[in-house]
Specification:
Length: 386
C-alpha cells in the first residue's frame, strides 16, 4: 500500500514554515516516522499564522496554516543551544535516515549539526537543506520567503493584468507556490537519495534552493524566452501558447474555456454556429494567438448568450474542455472531489475533529477510514521528557 511505502524510515524534521514541512508531511503520508523538532513555548512560526485557529483542550491555539503542512508528525521541543538537549537530538540523528532543515547557511555548523559533523556519526544520513538561495554563491547568506522568489524568479513578471488594462500590475499566486514546489522537489530528491543509498550504503547532502525552484518552475514560459529572446508579459487569464484558453463571462457567471487543438476549435465553432475555423486568421492555433485581439470580442459576444450549465453540457457533448471557477466550498462539494476522497476527517485527542486534505500521492482507499492518519500535533513535550 503506497501509504506505507516508507515504513521504517525515520525522519528528523528541523524545518519550519512551509517548504520543509511540506516535504516532511509528504514523507509522513508515505509512511515515514517524522519527529518534528520545535522551539520551546512558541514552536513552528506557522502555529501563530492565523486566524483561523483551532483550540485544544489545554487552551493552546493552533493556526489552520500549521495544520495544512504538519499532518502525520510527532512534535518535541528543545533548544539545541543547550548541550544536554543537543545531545538528546544527536541520539535521534544517529538512528535517523533523513534530516530536513531550513536554517540560514552556517547556522547549524555552530552547534555541530551541519552535514559534515552528522555524517561522521551517521554516514547513511540523507541531509536535506532547504534555503532561499542555496548553500553557495553571493546570495547564499540571505534569508527569503516565498513571496520574494515569486518576484525574483520571474513568475510575477508575467502573472497579472496586462499593461494598459484596468488593474494592471504584477500579482503573486493565491498560495505560496514556490514553497510548495520546493517541498515537492525536495520530496523527490529525498526519495531518490533513499534509492541511491540502497545501492551504495551512503547518505548525502541535498541542497535545495527556493530561487532554483522558482527559476525551474517557469517551465514553458522560460522555454518561450530562451527560444525567442523575448520576456513574456502579463496577459491576465490568457495562455501564452494556446487560444482560446482563458476565462469568459457567460450570462450567469464565468467559466474557463480550454481549447487545446484545431480539431476542438472546429467543434466549438460548429457548436456556436460560426465559421471562424474556416477563416485563415483563426484556422490554426498560431493564427488565433496572433489575432487574439480580433478573436476575443467575437468569443465574448457569443458566450455571453449562454448560461454556464447549458454551455458546460454542450461542451461536454462535443468533447471540449471547460471548467467552473469554484470557491472552496464548491470544491469540497464537487462530486468528483468527494468520490476521490480528497477531504479527510480525523480525530485528535486534544484538537478534536479536524478536516484535512488528502495527499494525492496516497491512494484514497488507503485512508478511506482515516483511522491511521496522524493528525498534526499540538506543541510537543520537552525532548528530555519525550
Amino acid at each position: 500500500m503506497l501509504a506505507s511505502a516508507l515504513d521504517g524510515v525515520r525522519v528528523v524534521d528541523l524545518s519550519r514554515i512551509l517548504a520543509g514541512p511540506w516535504c516532511t508531511q509528504n514523507l509522513a503520508d508515505l509512511g515515514a516516522h517524522v519527529l518534528k523538532i520545535e522551539r520551546p513555548v512558541k514552536g513552528d512560526d506557522t502555529r501563530g499564522w492565523g486566524p483561523p485557529f483551532v483550540t485544544a483542550d489545554s487552551g493552546e491555539t493552533v493556526a489552520a496554516y500549521f495544520l495544512a503542512c504538519n499532518r502525520g508528525k510527532h512534535s518535541v521541543t528543545l533548544d539545541f543551544a543547550l548541550s544536554s538537549e543537543r545531545e538528546w537530538l544527536l541520539r535521534q540523528i544517529q538512528d535517523a535516515d533523513v534530516l530536513v532543515e531550513n536554517y540560514k547557511v552556517g547556522t547549524l555548523a555552530k552547534y555541530g549539526l551541519d552535514y559534515a559533523a552528522l555524517a561522521a556519526i551517521n554516514p547513511r544520513l540523507i541531509y536535506l537543506s532547504v534555503t532561499g538561495f542555496g548553500q553557495t554563491g553571493p546570495f547564499a547568506h540571505k534569508p527569503g520567503y516565498d513571496y520574494i522568489f515569486q518576484g525574483m524568479g520571474g513568475l510575477m513578471s508575467y502573472t497579472g493584468i496586462a499593461d494598459g488594462e484596468e488593474g494592471a500590475g504584477p500579482l503573486r499566486t493565491g498560495v505560496a507556490v514556490v514553497d510548495l514546489m520546493t517541498g515537492m522537489y525536495a520530496t523527490s530528491a529525498v526519495l531518490a537519495a533513499l534509492v541511491q543509498r540502497g545501492r551504495t550504503g551512503q547518505g548525502q547532502h541535498l541542497d535545495i534552493a527556493l530561487l532554483d525552484v522558482a527559476v525551474a518552475m517557469n517551465a514553458n514560459q522560460a522555454a518561450n524566452y530562451l527560444v525567442s529572446g523575448e520576456s513574456p508579459e502579463r496577459i491576465g487569464n490568457t495562455h501564452p501558447n494556446l487560444s482560446p484558453y482563458e476565462v469568459f463571462e457567460c450570462a450567469d457567471g464565468f467559466m474557463i474555456l480550454a481549447i487545446g487543438n484545431d480539431t476542438q476549435f472546429a467543434a466549438f465553432c460548429a457548436l456556436m454556429q460560426t465559421d471562424w475555423h474556416l477563416q485563415p486568421d483563426f484556422a490554426t492555433n498560431a493564427g488565433r494567438l496572433t489575432h487574439i485581439k480580433q478573436l476575443r470580442p467575437l468569443l465574448r459576444q457569443v458566450l455571453r448568450q449562454w448560461h454556464t450549465r447549458a454551455l458546460g453540457e454542450a461542451l461536454d457533448a462535443n468533447g471540449i474542455s471547460w471548467g467552473n471557477i469554484n470557491n472552496l466550498e464548491q470544491v469540497f462539494q464537487h462530486p468528483q472531489v468527494q468520490h476521490r476522497q480528497m477531504l479527510q476527517t480525523v480525530r485528535h485527542p486534544e484538537l478534536g475533529e479536524l478536516k484535512l486534505v488528502r495527499n494525492p500521492m496516497v491512494l484514497a482507499q488507503a485512508n478511506a477510514a482515516d483511522t491511521d492518519v496522524i493528525a498534526p500535533p499540538v506543541l510537543g513535550p520537552a525532548a528530555v521528557l519525550a
